[in-house]
Amino acid sequence: MEQQGLDLMDQALGFHSNKAQQQPWPLSGRFVLVEDCVDTSGAFVLHHILKRSFTSHPSSAVIFLAFANPINHYDRVLRKLGCNLASQRDTGRFFFLDMLMLQCPVEGEPNHDGLAAVFEKIERVISELSPENKKFVTVIIDDISCLELAANGSSNDAIDFLHYCYTLTSENDYALVALNHRDIYSDGERSTFKLEIEYLADILVKVDPLATGLAKDVHGQVMVLNKETQKQHGISSIKVHNFHFKIKENNTEYFYAGSRT
Amino acid sequence: MAESVCRSLRDGALEGELAPTLTIKDSLASPFGFNVFSHILVQLSSQIVAGKSQSQGMVIVALSRSPSSYIDLLKMNGVDVESSKKWIHILDCYTDPLGWKDKTRKSGDITDPSNQILSSYKTVKDVNRLFSVICDLGRGLVGGSKSRFCVAIDSLSELLRHSSVQSVASLLSNLRSHEQISCIFGLLHSDLHEERAVAAVEYTSSMVASVDPFHHSVDGQGSNLGNSSRQNLTKGKFNVRSKRRNGRVRVTCEEFRVEPSGISFAPVSSVDGAAVAVAGLIPKVQFNLQLSEKERVDRSRVVLPFEHQGTGKPIQIYDGRRSLEDSNNEATPISGGKKEDSGRGEIIYYRDSDDEMPDSDEDPDDDLDI
C-alpha cells in the first residue's frame, strides 16, 4: 500500500517519513494510552490508529475489545475514513470481541475469572491467527472505564487485566492501544487508577478542549508524550508533541497551534 | 549520594544487624525510578560477579518488567549471566502473576529445568509464600549458612496493590531479619499509594532515595511530565536520606541525567539551582501590582480635582485637563461644555492630614462643603 504523507499524529506516534527508518509497525511492543474527557472525545485517535494498522503492513491483524460501542458504530466511522471493516474481518485481519454485555459474575467478591476468561479468549484468537498475520498484532481496548464497569467496579481487576494485555507487548512484541476517560478519575482516591495506567503506558496521548473554549475551526488540542523506552533501562528519552486538531467528515486534520488562518 | 548508596548495599549487613534496605521512590512528575533501580542492579551485580561484595548471589523479584529484560540489561552492561557458578535467580511474577495463562493446565509454579535462572511465580497475592520462595531460591544460590545473597524487588507498588500494607511491611521486615540476606532494594511509585503506605515502607528501609523533578511546577499542575519544563524530561534531583546505626540521619542531594546508555549522577550545580529556584518563586500573574520609583514620583505630582492649591490665584476647578495654557492645541474634551457652569461654583477640599494617601479608603468627597 502506498505510504501516504504522514500527519502530525503519525509523527508523534513514531512513524517516520524516511522509509529507511520506518519500522513495519512502529507501535510494536508499545502501549498507547489515549486519555480524553467529557468536553473532548479521544475516540478519533483510536479510529486513526485502527485505520493505520490496516494500511501499514499487509500482515497486520487487529483484535478489538469493544466495551463501549457495537460493531456497526465502528463500521460506519471507519467506512467514512475509507476503511472496510467487514472485508478485513473476512480476510482474517480484524477480530471484533463484543464485550458490551459482559458482566463479571459476582460471588461476594469480584470474580477474577470474568476477566481471566476474556484474556483467555484473546489468547485463543491469537493462537488461531495464520502465521503471517501473527507478526504485527494490535490489541485495541475501547474503553478502560467500561472495562472497569464490566469488572463490577473493581479497579484492581481492571489493572490486572491491563497488565496481562501489557505482557503481550513485551513477550510477543504486539501493540496495545486503550482509551481512558480521564475526568472520571480526577479526584482523590480514584486518581490512583489513572496513574497506574499512565505508569504502564509507553505513549500517552492526552486530548483536551481548547483553554479558550469551543471553536468552529479547532476542536481541541492533543499532547503526545512518547517515552522512548529501552525496556531494559527504563525511560531513556521523552519527546513531547503538542498540536491542535479538527475532526472532519472523512478525516481528522492535525496542525500546530496558530497555523490556521 | 548514589555512590555511597551502592557502597552500603555492597558492604551489606553486620553480624546480628538488620540488612540495609534501600527504597527508591519516584512519581509521574519524574518517572525515572526504574533507571536508578537498573543502575544499582548493574553495579551490585558486577560486584557480586567480581567477588567484591558481601552478597554472593542475587534474587530478583520481577513484577513490573519481564525477566528477559533483566537478562538483556545485565548482558548489555557486560555482566556474565550464564557463568558456571550460578549467582543470579529471577523470580518471574510478571508474566503470569495470578495464574490466568494456561488455566487448563493449572501447572502451578514451575522451575523450568532448561532455564537455570528463572522461576515463575503465579500466586503473587500470597506474600508469605513469596517470602519462603525467595529464601529458598537464595539458599539455592549461595548454599551454606554463612553465605549471603541480596534481594531486588522491582516494584513494591505492585506488591502493595496485590496485598495489604501490613503484609508488604512484614515481608520487608522478615527479609531484613533473615540471617542470610545481605541487602535489599526496591522501587516504589509514591503517587500510587496513600501516605501511610509510603511511610510504612520508608520506616522499614534504612535508605530512602527520592527521584524528584528538576523544577517543581509552581501552579501544581506539573504532575504530568507533559506540563513540566523541558529539563524535567531528562534531568532530575536525587535526594537520599539514610539512617545510620546511631540514629543519625544523613541527607544528600545530587542531580541525575538520563541518557540512552543509562543514568549519570553529578553534584548539584548551585548556580543553576539558585537562579531557577528564584524564578520558580515569582508568581506568574499578568499584572504588576508594584509601583516603580518613577511611578511613585509621578503619582505624587497628580493634582487632584477638588484640592485647594493655595497659590493665591482664584481657585480654578480642575476638570481633568491640564492647565488652560497647555490646552490650546488639544482636542476639546467632552466636559468642555460644562466649564462655564463649574467656573462659578467653589469646592473646598481639606485633607485630613498631609500624609494621607491620595486614594485611601476614605471617600474624599466626604469633606466637600459646597
TrEMBL record, chain A:
Pathway entry: tRNA modification; 5-methoxycarbonylmethyl-2-thiouridine-tRNA biosynthesis
InterPro entries, per database record: ELP6 (IPR018627), P-loop_NTPase (IPR027417)
Family: Belongs to the ELP6 family.
Protein name: Elongator complex protein 6
UniProtKB/TrEMBL annotation, chain B:
Compositional bias (Acidic residues): 353-370
Keywords (A to Z) from UniProt: Cytoplasm, Nucleus, tRNA processing
Subcellular location: Cytoplasm; Nucleus
Pathway: tRNA modification; 5-methoxycarbonylmethyl-2-thiouridine-tRNA biosynthesis
Highest taxon of source: Eukaryota
InterPro entries on file: Elp5
CDD domains with a match to the protein in the record: Elp5 (cd19496)
Residue ranges with Basic and acidic residues bias: 337-352
Nucleus recorded as keyword: yes
Region (Disordered): 312-370
UniProt similarity note: Belongs to the ELP5 family.
Protein name: Elongator complex protein 5
Species of provenance: Stylosanthes scabra
Lineage, top ranks: Eukaryota, Viridiplantae, Streptophyta, Embryophyta, Tracheophyta
